[in-house]
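Re: Re: ligand-bound prediction request (bumping)

Still looking for help on this. To restate: I need the protein modeled with pyridoxal-5'-phosphate bound, output as structure tokens. Inputs repeated here so nobody has to scroll up.
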Amino acid sequence: MTSQNQILFEQSQHLIPGGVNSPVRAFRSVGGTPIFFKKGLGSKLWDVDGKEYIDYINSWGPMIVGHAHPEVIAAVQAVAANSLSFGAPTGLELEMAETINKLVPSMEQIRLVSSGTEATMSAIRVARGFTGRSKLVKFEGCYHGHADSLLVKAGSGLLTFGEPDSAGVPAEVAANTLTLPYNNVEQLEALFKQSGDEIACVIIEPVVGNMNLVKPTEAFLKALRDLCTKHGSVLIFDEVMTGFRVHLGGAQALYGIKPDMTTLGKVIGGGLPVGAFGGRKDIMSGLAPLGKVYQAGTLSGNPVAVTAGLKTLELIQAPDFHKNLTVQTQKLVDGLMAAAKKIGVTFSAQSVGGMFGLYFSEACPTCFDEVMTSDKAAFNVFFHSMLDSGIYLGPSAFEAGFVSAAHTDGDIATTIAAAEKAFQVILSTK
Ligand SMILES: *Cc1c(COP(=O)(O)O)cnc(C)c1O
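Reply:
Sorry for the wait, this slipped through. Here it is.
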């Protein structure tokens, strides 16, 4: 019998390239038919065929309080009735700036945009304007959205396709982007020694979530901070994924490192399109209309989107919110590790706050090259077995997973039971 998922995917491919509006959704890495959803509530999703799933993607992070949270939905409905957009300032944007500044104090001034891509692209322009330099440093396997200068050895969907660079990015643009291996202090020092005074900025995922989950070493983050300070390069923490997820104050609060600029997205919109970039006032005041760095947006600071974000940020400030999220995510990771050990499958896992990584390798990877050694075939078998059991994971071995506040002990137990079955399938296919 042909499912609604198959029919929709078949038809979508005629009009939408690959049938999807963002590449990883197409399931190319794991094979099979992508799931088309029609409803979500709390930790659960329902597809167009009525099948129920426990969701560990959470829209790639934003749904940290769970799907269709009644308070978020009510706030959005109320504000939507006052018009969907003005293209003019509102008090809501001030409220958002105040909330961000309170939770992430290194963001002394903030500007709102509509996606993470816009946030990183704009932050880099501001950093270049401020320093008068052109060179940008990023790390192998980190993804910072799809702006031209950042699609150089990027992670996420690009990794899935085994294609380090994108066609359509001029070589001249890519030439200003220098890439280094993550967690490698020696190479970082060597690069700064050689061309530190040409480096406008360094952009980094302070905990990587786009080549699967990779944790930074404290020595690496500290060396980065010191070298940027010494050479007058702007340190940009891309916290689009980690912001409000690994800690209420982001990875910078968790690791105690103060960047010059920060980019936010995902959680900050609570499921609607919001991004933000901000940082030191002397840098941010280079933006138009104050300074000479141009940046703008018709829907920037959109009242409905900002309201969804504000309500989400209010909910995550509840006492012990991140403590509970961290514990719950750790329970999942511990349970999966125990299940793999019991069945006898090579597997490791770890988490930071509400983000987790699953690896079909002996140890948790610390850089891109190590990520690439994991058993991708085993992941694909695992993914499909879990999907059959109603557990929705990222459709690629190179994506982090996400737990929300709505995930119950029951959800975790169901997931671990499904994983035991999936690990058995892996063994039987070896
Ligand atoms: C998702 C993500 C982006 C891009 O955000 P979009 O809203 O998809 O444009 C940038 N940086 C990081 C670290 C991300 O995880």
